[in-house]
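Supplementary Text 2. Reproducibility record for the structural model of the 277-residue chain.

All settings were left at their defaults, and a single model was retained for analysis rather than an ensemble. We include the record here because the model underlies the residue-level annotations in Supplementary Table 4.
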Amino acid sequence: METKQLKLQAERNRRRLIEIVYNAKAGHIGGDLSCLNVLTALYFNIMNVNPENPKLADRDRFVLSKGHCVEALYAVLEARGFIKKELVDTLGRFGSPLAGHPTIEVPGIEVNSGALGHGLSIGAGMAIAAKMDKKPWHVYVLMGDGEQGEGSIYEAAMAGNQYHLDNLVAIIDRNHLQISGDTEDVMAIDSIKERWGAFGWDVKEMNGDDMQSIVDTFAGIDYHNGKPHLLVSYTTKGKGVSFMENIAKWHHGMFNSEQYAQALAEIDARIDLIQNS
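Retained model, structure tokens:
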């Protein structure tokens, strides 16, 4: 998919995400919005996946380590054809198979996740399995920046280097805000690039708010260099909704009907702009 079409798809996914969270009356909308561009690029441009055969043997694997942002994943899985709109509309209702974190009962989801710090270890295990079986598929793990305070991440980082997991790509959604404030006030993680480089990872930085930067960065990955890959994705919490951007309370905030209408209007304006450009 060309970059313009990816931008358009991301905005359509963003609009649908707003609807999903508003209708469910729950969700981690700020982080959902900051990682949505990357999720769109992964499912529509990067990963080898097939919604008609979600368990395709040689499919690429994706792990949403920051599982509390599952609403963004639902929006993308729906758009990609893994799950139906009617199912996504049940989120937040009694008896729905959709939860506030990923579960394997949902087509297209590989593992139950959301206990922060676990996703990279799971992804490393998957990547080791692919190496042992001489399989061509890749593993992609999306983490939060607040999640970087979890010690298990660094055990997985050491394992990635030890086993030369060049089929493993970890992404940090670097929006600087976690539930209790700025990451650098809660548990400072700068400089990420030097830290992960010291662990032996191939580290790249990208503008996660810009689709062209995302596409170019993924295209520059060398999957045969003997090193695991880390992409630091610099993003904006609440990206794409003006009154949410860079505001910590929108980590888990809920918008009213007037804010809902404003959010949709802003996104619709961008959709029109892209379509007419």
